[in-house]
Amino acid sequence: MGWLRDETGLDRTEANYTPLTPLSFLKRAVQIWPDHPAVLYGPHRKSYAEYVERVTRLASALAGAGVAPGDVVATILPNIPAQAEAHFGVPACGAVLNAINTRLDPDTVAYILDHGEARLVLCDTQFLPTLAEAIERMESAAPQVIEVPDDFAGVHRHSDYPQYEDFLAGGDPEFVWHMPQDEWESLALNYTSGTTGRPKGVVYHHRGAYLNAMGQVLSWRMTLNPVYLTIVPLFHCNGWCHTWMMPALGGTVVCCRDITAPAIFDAIADEGVTHFGGAPIVLNMLVNAPAEQRRNFDHVVEVFTAGAPPAPATLAKIEPMGFNVTQVYGLTEVYGPATECTWKAEWEPLQGADRAAIKARQGVAMPFMEEVRVTDEALADIPRDGEAKGEIMFRGNGVMKGYFKNPKATQEAFAGGYFHSGDIAVHHPDGYVQIADRAKDIIISGGENISSVEVESCLMGHDAVLLCAVVAKPDEKWGEVPCAFVELKDGHDATEAELIAYARERLAGFKTPKTVVFRELPKTSTGKIQKFELRGLAKTL
C-alpha cells in the first residue's frame, strides 16, 4: 500500500478535481482582463468581454442548429477571427472541431466531410466553390453551411447560405458552456496531409490540448499579455494550440489571412507582435524581403519554427534582424510542437554558423511530453553519439487519442507503447535530438545513407539559393543519387555546375547532388515542401 496505508475518504470530488480543458483559459481570462484586446484583425478589435460573448453566441447558435455534444463541426477558414472563435465556440457546445485545410481539392474535402460526419461547416466565401463541389461528391448527407465573408480582405458575400454574423446574432449570450465531464473527451479532429493515400483523422482530447498549451508557455518563456501573430494556419494542428494558449496569459491574437513579408513586418511594427510560429520558409521570406517591405521595430520577436529543419544559413541571418528563433519539432499526432531546442547559457558565446548549427536541433521533450527517444527497429535506444540514426518515438499526454475509425493504423502507430513518428534522427551526447530525415527521404546511394537535410542545408548556404529540396533520383550504377530542386532569389543567377561544385567543396563526393533542377518548389499551405511530387519528377529526369 506504500506510505499511505489508508486512503479512505481521499476520493476524487467536484472540490478537488476538474477535467482539464483549454476552455477554462478563456473563462478565466474574461474575469481578469475583460477590457484587454483579445483578437485583432484590421477594424475587428475585440476585448476579452466581447470575444467571450461572440464565442458564447456561436456555441448557442450551433446548439440551436441541431449540433449535439460529440458531433463534428468543420471549418474551411483562413486565419481570421471566426476561426479563432470556432476553437472555443465549437467545444463550448460540446462538439468536436474539424479545421479543414483550405488548399485541399474538392475530392479530399468530400472525403473528410464524409469520414468525419460533419453536421455543419463554417466556410470562408473564397472557398465556397470548393465546398460546393465537395458536397456534390459526398456519399452521406450534406452538412449545413454557414458562409463567413471577409469584407476587410475584399472577400464579400455571394451566396444564399446563412451569414456568420447573422448566425452569431441569433445565439444566446447567456448560453451555458458545455464543459467536458471527462478530459479524455474529444476536442478536435485533424486530418493528415494524405500524401500517400487518404488522410487519417487525428483525434485530440481536452487534456492533451490543455497540457500542450501550458507546456509551450514554459518553453517559450512567456509572460503576461503577449501579442501573438497567427502565421501557423489554425487548420494545422489547431495552430499548434497557440490560440487556445493565449487566454491563459491574457494575450492578444493578431489574425493574419495572407502570409507575406509586409503583413508580418506591419503587424510587428503596428500591433507590437511579440511572438509567432512558422515554418522555415517564413523565416526565409523575411530574410530575403527587400528593404521597401520591411519595417523597423524596437523589440525582440520570439519565434517558434518547425515543419522542417531550418538551414543554418537562414538562422544566422534572421537573428540580427531582431528575431530570436527557437527550433521546435512535432507532428499532427502530437498536437504540433513536442520538442524544443532549449537554449543553454554555455552556448551564448557561439556566433555565426556554430550558433545556428545548435539552434537547428530539434532538442528535448517539452514539459508535457513524458518521453522522447530515438530507437532502432527493436525499440532499443541508439547510441547518443550524434552519428547513429534511429526513429523518434514519443510517449506522454501530448500524444493523440488515435486515428478516427482506423484502429489498425492506431495500433501500428502505438506499437511497443510509443508513438512512431517516422522521422529519422541522431541523438547528441547532451540528450538533444536532431532530425536527419524522414524515413522515406533518406537517399541510399551505393549502400551509403545520405541525409537529404544535410545536402539541403549545404546548398542553402549559397547566396543565390532561396529554397531547395533534395530527393533520390534513380541511378543504374548507384541505385539512387541526390537530385536537388532549387528556387533562386530574385536578381540572382547560378548554374547547375556552380551549385554542384559548391556542394562538392563542402560535402563528401557521394553526397554531392548529381543533378540540379531550377524551378518553383511545390509547397503545402504551411510552407512544407512537397517532396513526394519532386520524387516523382526525379524519376522522369
From TrEMBL:
UniProt protein name: 3-methylmercaptopropionyl-CoA ligase
GO MF, any single term: ligase activity
NCBIfam families: PRK08162.1
Keywords: Fatty acid metabolism, Ligase, Lipid metabolism, Magnesium, Metal-binding
Subunit structure: Homodimer.
Assigned protein family: Belongs to the ATP-dependent AMP-binding enzyme family.
Stored InterPro entries: AMP-bd_C, AMP-bd_C_sf, AMP-binding_CS, AMP-dep_synth/lig_dom, ANL_N_sf
Catalytic function, reaction form: 3-(methylsulfanyl)propanoate + ATP + CoA = 3-(methylsulfanyl)propanoyl-CoA + AMP + diphosphate
Gene3D superfamilies according to UniProt: 3.30.300.30, N-terminal domain of ligase-like
BP terms from Gene Ontology: fatty acid metabolic process
EC numbers for this chain: 6.2.1.44
Domain AMP-binding enzyme C-terminal: 454-528
AMP-dependent synthetase/ligase domain sequence ranges: 27-404
Keyword Transport: no
EC class of the enzyme, as a word: ligase
Cofactors, names only: Mg(2+)
A matching Pfam family: AMP-binding_C
Organism field: Pseudoponticoccus marisrubri
